[in-house]
Design a protein that fits this description.
Elements: E1 8-12, H1 17-28, E2 32-36, H2 40-50, E3 54-56, H3 64-78, E4 83-86, H4 102-130, E5 133-138, H5 152-172, E6 177-184, H6 201-206, H7 210-221, E7 231-234, H8 240-248
Helix pairs in contact: 1-2, 1-7, 3-4, 4-5
Bound molecules: NADP nicotinamide-adenine-dinucleotide phosphate (NAP).
Amino acid sequence: MGRLDGKVAWVTGAGSGIGEAAAQALAGAGARVVLSGRRRAPLEAVAARIGVAARVAPGDMAVAGDVGAIVAGIEREFGRLDILVANAGLNILARGWDQLTPEGAASVIGANLNSAFYCASAVLPMMRRQKDGVLIHTASLAGRFISLLSGPAYTAAKHGVVAMSHTINMQECVHGIRSSVINPGEVATPILDQRPVPVSAEERARMVQPADVADLILYIACLPPHVVLNEVLITPTWNRSYVASLARAGR
Ligand SMILES: NC(=O)c1ccc[n+]([C@@H]2O[C@H](COP(=O)([O-])OP(=O)(O)OC[C@H]3O[C@@H](n4cnc5c(N)ncnc54)[C@H](OP(=O)(O)O)[C@@H]3O)[C@@H](O)[C@H]2O)c1
């Protein structure tokens, strides 16, 4: 018997990287999983690998109407939602202040921060009725520490995601609802293709892998209802920012 038998999970950004691995892990534990992202084809490919437990629900999480329609569909089909993995996100190449445009900033803030608000707002009424529900947000180390690597829009958006996750616990704890925010350092996923300085295959191999974050998401999803893991940092042991500061320190 799976630990998540009978549970329904919705994973955003499920067509690749962390979201794909999380969907596979949750389905492997018995959950039925709904997969969202903007492009249908990668979602269909992930669903085919998972099998009958998976449904595809494409949409842009930065568009409140898309989010509302998907959640209404989940309610119609399953009548419940136990786990939200609000993981959709992106970054852009032209991210520094010398290149950032209003459109670029809006796309980053929309996909990372607005999306998290739209998803949480849409699922909370169902979870309140159930008196149960787990929200798991993928923020970033850039949501806890300020640096230039990820750019100002992404850094600000992810700080917002961390803050909003904590406020969910502050207000919704009385309804049995729990919100966790995961702050990964570098994870070897396609998002790294948007880095201004290209990341080699050798460097990617040393990073946290999508399955490592998926293990953590599964752990959080399986916690007993009286426990919330509020915030977690997960980084590569070979942390490139530490290694660079060791070099600067002449070590
Ligand atoms: N990899 C890292 O080093 C790292 C570190 C810290 C945090 N994160 C965060 O981890 C999360 C997952 O990213 P990843 O690393 O797994 O990269 P990824 O493979 O690029 O996955 C991101 C997914 O989000 C989807 N997405 C982007 N914008 C969307 C939108 N507006 N609506 C719906 N789906 C959208 C993308 O699919 P479509 O393009 O089809 O929409 C894609 O499948 C992101 O929030 C990212 O910021 C990653």
